[in-house]
Write a structure and sequence with these properties.
This protein has 160 residues and is α+β, with helices and mostly antiparallel strands. It contains 3 helices and 7 strands, in the order αβαββαββββ.
Amino acid sequence: MKKLFVFVLLAMPFAAMSQAHSGYTASYSSNFAIADPSYSDKILMLWKDFENNTLDKHLDMFADTVSIMFATGPMIKGKAQNLASVKEFRNSIKNYKVILDAWISVKSSDKNENVVCVWGTEEFTDKDGKQVKQRTHEVWKFNKDGKIDLMLQYSGADGM
C-alpha cells in the first residue's frame, strides 16, 4: 500500500502536466503520436509530381471531396476543382525548385486520423517574370480510407 501511495504521489505532477495547455484548447487536436512514415512518402511523391509538372500521376491519392486551402486564396472544395486550380498555377510558373527542410507523419490519437506536416522553401519564376522565394508549411490530412481529404498551406514571402 505504501508503494502505491508513493507511485500515485510521484505520478500526479506528470498527469497534471499532460493536461495543462496554458489555457488553450485545440480546435482539432493536441494529442499526436508519430505515425507510419508511408504517409509522408505519399505526400513527398505529390511534391515531386508538382515539381516535375506531372500532376496526374497520383490522383488516386485524393478523396473526391478533398478541400485545399492554398496560402494565396480561399478554400477550394472537390477533386476536379483543386486539380484545375493547381494545374493552372503550375503551368503559369517556370524554374520551380523546392528544398524540403523537414516532414513528419503523425496520428491524432483522439481523432484517429493521419496527418503529414511538411516544411520547405519554394523558388520559381512567376508569370510576370518575377523571381519568387517563399517558405512553405503544409498540413495534409488523410481520411479513414487512406485518401487525402484536406490540405492547408501557409507561406512566407521572400524566404522569410
